[in-house]
Amino acid sequence: MKKFLPILRNSPFFKGLTDDEILSILHCVEATTVSKERDSYIFRAADSTEVMGLVVSGCVLVIQEDLWGHRNILSKCHAGDFFGEPYAASPGAVLNISVVADEDCEIIFLNVQKLLVTCPTACEHHQKLIRNLVSVLANKILILNDKITHVGKRTTRDKLLSYLSAESIRHSSLSFDIPFDRQQLADYLCIDRAAFGAHIFFDDQDIHTEPASAVVPAATVPYRDGDNPKE
To answer: Which residues does UniProt assign to the signal peptide (predicted)?
Structure first.
């Protein structure tokens, strides 16, 4: 676990903790490490879990899928981000999300239930860790609130502008990178990818909104295998 300390130090879950305290906590919560290949599932809907995941390399997508293969992306987690916390903290809760590797990744699983009971070693940093967990959960609520704001717009154009505007504000810039590829962005905003053509255009790897009366941001969208930059 020591090799992951540079990532763990910067994770909000371990905020304010020393390296020794982090390693002690990993022992308390029975931390285990797994490696996953791109497109493999980490959690599946309808399962239950006692552990939450911490991405230490690569990235994963938190998604919802229906029987017809339609995918709704809830969020994307990079190194240092967590997933599955609410379900791990609720014994018996059934997952209504799946988590899939967006690229080859490494995950640390932490048993949340070990945090919700008195630590057998009475470690001084236990309460600090619980406060950090509450902060992590609160941040997830804010992320989902942003998504609800975007998908709640009535038109494809308004959804795109809502998302781009929020990202522009978050980056404090009119130019920024988008963490999703084209299909993922469509899945995140719950729109048909083909609808992009009427509202945005691609120039190399840049995505631009249609001409509008107000200044709108330009963002870089990453390519994935099989992407057509003219779509």
So the answer is: none
